[in-house]
């Protein structure tokens, strides 16, 4: 089995990170190195003994520099095979081996998410798997064959470093939350790279979320406009339609977004989703 690196980024989420690292250590094969990019003060990060972890503190001034942080972590890796994991994930013991078996220069591999209704006290995959539920939009995606590139999500993916460089990495002109994943999918599709699901899973640890995500209203609008400028189409259309239905924005026939008002405290409170996904 080839050497591989693991990358994750974190802001807050110390319990989630501890659970992720617990699960990584319990994997059937271990990474050569683990790169953690911290988007806040690194205090409170605990590393299990025996894991080769490097911590990088992001110097970006933006509140949530997701694209830049991912690029920083992937650039720092010490091997040619990279597995990026969202800090909210707990990986199955077999996931790394399954991903590496099928990883090629012309592919990006990903896996299926299952959603926990809690932040658990442990990262023991076997103890938690029965508590998780699938995402209704993702459980029927076929395994082992190329799928639509817009099914990409940076929750979990494997890529070779030279492939990442060919694609150009994540576009750092997308700051904050929204569209940077879809933009990356468009770029790897343009480069002829295919997206394939392996038959394995990550457990997503619960966190409060808004539907639509009005808590990220400003960056979603900014990134939607940036994406439209780049690709001539509006992304995140379900979220934008949700904003429009709430009276926050107006989208005209030319797909121009006009902000009518910022989300109110009441709208923020009432948009919290009851679902774990």
Automatic annotation (TrEMBL):
Pfam families xrefs: Glyco_tranf_2_2
Annotated ranges, domain Glycosyltransferase 2-like prokaryotic type: 63-198
Gene Ontology MF terms in the entry: glycosyltransferase activity
Keywords, alphabetical: Glycosyltransferase, Transferase
Domain of life: Bacteria
Keyword Zinc-finger: no
InterPro entries: GlycosylTrfase-like_prok, Nucleotide-diphossugar_trans
Coiled coil residues, start to end: none
Family under the similarity heading: Belongs to the glycosyltransferase 2 family.
PANTHER family documented for this protein: GALACTOFURANOSYLTRANSFERASE GLFT2, RHAMNOSYLTRANSFERASE WBBL
Protein name per the record: Glycosyltransferase
The species this protein was found in: Spirosoma validum
